[in-house]
Amino acid sequence: MSTEVKVPALPESVSEATVVTWHKQPGDEVERDENLVDLETDKVVLEVPAPEDGILGEILKPEGETVTAGEVVAVLNAAGEGQSATAGGEEKTGQEPAAESTAPAEAATEGEMPSLSPAVRNLVEEHDLDPRRISGTGRNGRILKEDVLRYMEQGGEDQPAATPAAAPAPSSEPAPTPTPPAAEAPAAAVPAGEREERRVPMTRLRQRIAERLVQAQQNAAMLTTFNEVNMQPVMDLRGRYKDSFLKAHDTKLGFMSFFVKAAVEALKRYPAVNASIDGTDILYHGYYDIGIAVSTDRGLMVPVLRDADQLSFAEIEAAIADFGQRAQQGKIEIEELTGGTFTITNGGIFGSLVSTPILNPPQSGILGMHKIQERPMAENGQVVVRPMMYLAHSYDHRIIDGKEAVQFLVTIKDMLEDPARLLLEV
Hints:
By secondary structure, this protein is of the alpha+beta class.
């Protein structure tokens, strides 16, 4: 008895998805709720679990295929189904199992091209490798992605599968046999005098990011105002209490919670920055849902801290740490990426000294944090060295005047340079 593996219900406003990675191959045993395949939408990556225990049969939608909700992507056979079919074949044909077991060896000897899964084929083609020289550890000698990665780590050497293919040459021309592979390898990578180009389709997430960035540039009157903040008070406070904070709350005390708290206080004073435009109306939000930009290998995500004004420092730090971990694993839920009234992004973790952040539509403001760098500053007629950070506030000038934008950023600066005000809300 077989079971169909179907695409789950897709998030609202998402009509289709792309098959990204199959974690199992036909013939592999799977357990109930084990992840079989990852599907990428323009917002999140969805995991498709196995509906029951069994053996993965046929894959109907290989990697790179576009699928819709409810579409069948694979067939899952019952646990004993694969073994009984094999036994029946032995009774009828007798010699067929032996022929199957020797097929991989014969293919290697004759130099035939082995059958590859889409993921393995893409990896082989991308690095211009000869799959006949790669020894497979999968079922019936099938080449797995791990085999290709191991082959490349070893520099393409010491692979048992290459021995049969090279065996006929020494009998006729013993001396030249070792040299051709070494001479061919560089030529196969990039021919001399040529400039290599690769065309790679955008992922759905990257397409969505590009679409929203263009939308922000075209649909908003975006301006940016800058200021700088002395981070010494926050750093002193953090250094004094970080150990006890970790012990009490089981989470580290970072800088982001201070910025979230400061931004919330500034948003309360300047509600236009927390508003958005809907047609010819302005929507003033009476809540503070702060988006935190998180960089991943797939692109930028902005999960949202709901009701940030009601969260403690520890709750903010724990939530942000959780966002970062799950974003790298592709496990952020679609509901966590929707909404948001204001966004904070930190380019300083990558070394950015100053930048102009782009609005996250339909929001009207975004705060950009940057690298903390010691600089000479004048204080009370004396030159002192302070750990300074440039702040950038990009805003939609259609509903936020320059005066409000500047005062909003100055409020954040004042809160951070005297962090006790965050607790007293003054």
